[in-house]
């Protein structure tokens, strides 16, 4: 099999590693505008060679894991360059504008819109790991617009990686993901900011902070280059979720100011149900 | 050594386990208003016997790990009941009101005000683990008010547990901890609430949520019985930190609405420094 991975970081690199493990005969070509990432991926044996768009015509599978603003720009050009029998998948954290960008493309049937709910706060080829996708959900949008034979090829790989598949339309995806993913990142970044602003002596922070703080701000390590375009493309839903979050925080603050501690207790007690919900979430091995 | 643990949950139980491991000859008496917790602790071998306040007079060390509202009530009575040669330590997440409650007590010199920055989102004796305190910071307040010989006895135990000691006054403790601990819990609880309210179909949440969400809302599993009195006692600092957090979230939201994505990027980029800060935070083994 000929696999081309465009954007050879955590997501693309982990995909390449799993495919190589399951199909050792696969020839993997890496494309990345970051030359040092390409060299690193080659050294780490994640890809077999560096390449360019000329490698796309002969590819069976093209995996595009680049920031979502680059996706809307590059995806049409990628489809221009592929063969009729090539399946092109992405891993973008937004789906609305990306599907919109290719909706009238003559090779739309070659594209499968995907969002694997997998990742860590780390990035780059060195962050790529085997089994990143195992047990994780892969959200597929507008599956009906992809050629059946090409859907099958992609789904076989996902099944081999033990992913759970969920089908959704792009609008529902972007709305849900704003709440369960994008909002978490903003809450983490702003929590980190609030504490750093206060604790001028950063030594104090980690002397006093515990694993709870570490867990809550973990996502504030995430890449701004990746996340800024996600927030831009999903702005409407992200702002809505942020408004509801701010409102809930303001209500909680008012309960404290009003000494309504029974209500404070109730607020936390009602949210304790999250225990049962979280039991269903597969953790990343890294 | 005679050790009495009042409140035999995660914190008290883990303390008892470590002391027993380091000093197998220690006789450990457990006191808890929750009879089933006492029975559980006895079954698990965390304590040697159940007891009452009559056990305090003969104790070398008394470890009080109960909710902070119970601490301000019980600590004076505990000091009434101990011998001159007994050291009484607490593990409360607030220090101001607790130190205030005993400041004029004739046995104030028997009390060492402590806050070990250790814990998990779990509670009860079954959550107690060996090594919970290893590498963690223990904040000691008003050390000068504790009899030197009794400070020594406590510090020897902390050193054997490999804890890092930091000395602070109660007011500074409560201010810092509001930011690095209490605020994280509120941000987690309200994030969980926001998502649960939106995702009526909870099945959807864990189908779509990844480990990032899990990490960010982990603290929303925490015990409301423990946390409500903490927020009540540290209300002023918690409300201040909450206001700054809400302000930062509102500013971020406005940047999104104004399409100021360079500033959005800068906000996240500035907070990425949290990586270096977090490197210093010891993680809980559980």
Task: Give an overview in words.
In chain A, 52% of the residues lie in helices and 13% in strands. Chain A has 286 residues and is an alpha/beta fold. In chain A, strand 2, helix 2 and strand 3 form a beta-alpha-beta unit. In chain A, helix 3 packs parallel to helix 4. The first copy, chain A, has an eight-stranded mixed sheet with strand order 3-2-1-4-5-6-7-8, with helices on both faces. Chain A is built from twelve helices and eight strands. At the A-B interface, helix 6, helix 7, helix 8, helix 9 and helix 10 of A face helix 6, helix 7, helix 8, helix 9 and helix 10 of B. Chains A, B: This is Prephenate dehydrogenase. Chains A, B: InterPro entries: 6-PGluconate_DH-like_C_sf, NAD(P)-bd_dom_sf, PDH_C, PDH_N, Preph/Arog_dehydrog, Prephen_DH. Chains A, B: GO terms for molecular function: prephenate dehydrogenase (NAD+) activity.
């Amino acid at each position: 099999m000929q696999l081309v991975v465009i954007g050879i970081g955590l997501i693309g690199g982990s995909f390449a590693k799993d495919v190589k493990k399951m199909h050792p005969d696969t020839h993997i070509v890496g494309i990345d505008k970051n030359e040092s990432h390409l060299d690193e991926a080659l050294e780490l044996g994640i890809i077999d060679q560096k390449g360019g768009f000329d490698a796309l015509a002969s590819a069976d599978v093209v995996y595009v894991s680049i920031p979502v603003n680059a996706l809307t720009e590059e995806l049409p050009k990628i489809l221009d360059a592929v063969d009729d029998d090539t399946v092109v998948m992405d891993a973008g954290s937004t789906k609305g504008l990306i599907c919109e960008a290719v909706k009238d493309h003559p090779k739309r049937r070659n594209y499968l819109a995907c969002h694997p709910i997998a990742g860590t706060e780390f990035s780059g080829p060195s962050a790529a790991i085997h089994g990143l996708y195992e047990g994780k959900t892969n959200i597929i949008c507008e599956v009906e617009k992809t050629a059946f034979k090409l859907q099958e090829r992609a789904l076989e790989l996902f099944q081999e990686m033990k992913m759970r598949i969920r089908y959704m339309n792009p609008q529902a995806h972007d709305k849900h993901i704003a709440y369960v993913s994008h909002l978490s990142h903003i809450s983490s970044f702003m929590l980190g900011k609030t504490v750093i602003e206060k604790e001028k002596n950063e030594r104090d922070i980690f002397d006093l902070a515990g694993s709870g703080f570490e867990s809550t701000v973990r996502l504030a390590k995430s890449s701004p280059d990746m996340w800024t375009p996600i927030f831009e493309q999903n702005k409407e839903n992200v702002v809505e979720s942020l408004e509801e979050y701010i409102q809930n925080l303001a209500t909680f603050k008012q309960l404290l100011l009003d000494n309504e501690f029974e209500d404070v207790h109730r607020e936390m007690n009602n949210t304790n149900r999250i225990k049962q919900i979280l039991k269903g979430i597969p953790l990343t091995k890294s």
